[in-house]
Design goal:
The protein is α+β, with helices and mostly antiparallel strands and 156 residues long. The protein is built from five helices and four strands, in the order H-H-H-E-E-H-H-E-E. It has one domain. It is elongated.
């Protein structure tokens, strides 16, 4: 580590053609005033495109438990990156699918969108409005596909 005093001297000393010829090539040493942080997050527009193109399969049933009408079921969404070739900057390969799956599993906004889809599917299958919806979501990948499984339990 270079002491700050040496950095200040290096930066403030005038440079002439003579001193450049005599010195060997040196590593550039500058102090950053601003530190930068690069963060990666899912694009909401991309998630909307994937969800609009997703294959959705749902199953479930109405039942009575403890005198209460409930719906229990599951919704499976398959996001196939091979169906989106050319739409996105990133490659539609298994590496991108793994990154997308890992980020989908953690992204609150994306998880809420998936929950909305599962809730609509529960209402479609139960033929009524559902309340107090509880979901459990699992995300996995297989090749260029992201597989999302959502278990749904709701009051009718």
């Amino acid at each position: 580590m270079v002491p700050v005093k040496s950095l200040v001297n290096l930066i403030t000393q005038p440079t002439t053609a003579e001193t450049l010829r005599m010195r060997p090539m040196a590593r550039a040493a500058q102090i950053a005033i601003f530190e930068r942080e690069v963060r990666e997050r899912l694009s909401k527009a991309a998630i909307e495109v994937f969800l609009a193109r997703a294959e959705v399969i749902s199953e479930g049933q109405r039942l009575t438990r403890g005198g209460k009408q409930l719906f229990e079921g599951s919704t499976m969404l398959t996001l196939d990156l091979s169906r989106s070739i050319g739409l996105f900057r990133e490659a539609s390969d298994s590496g991108t699918a793994r990154r997308l799956g890992a980020m989908l599993a953690r992204d609150t906004w994306a998880r809420n969108r998936v929950r909305q889809i599962a809730t609509k599917e529960a209402e479609r299958l139960s033929h009524t409005k559902v309340h107090e919806v509880s979901t459990e979501m699992r995300v996995s990948t297989k090749g260029v596909k992201v597989l999302i499984d959502v278990d749904v339990e709701a009051k009718l």
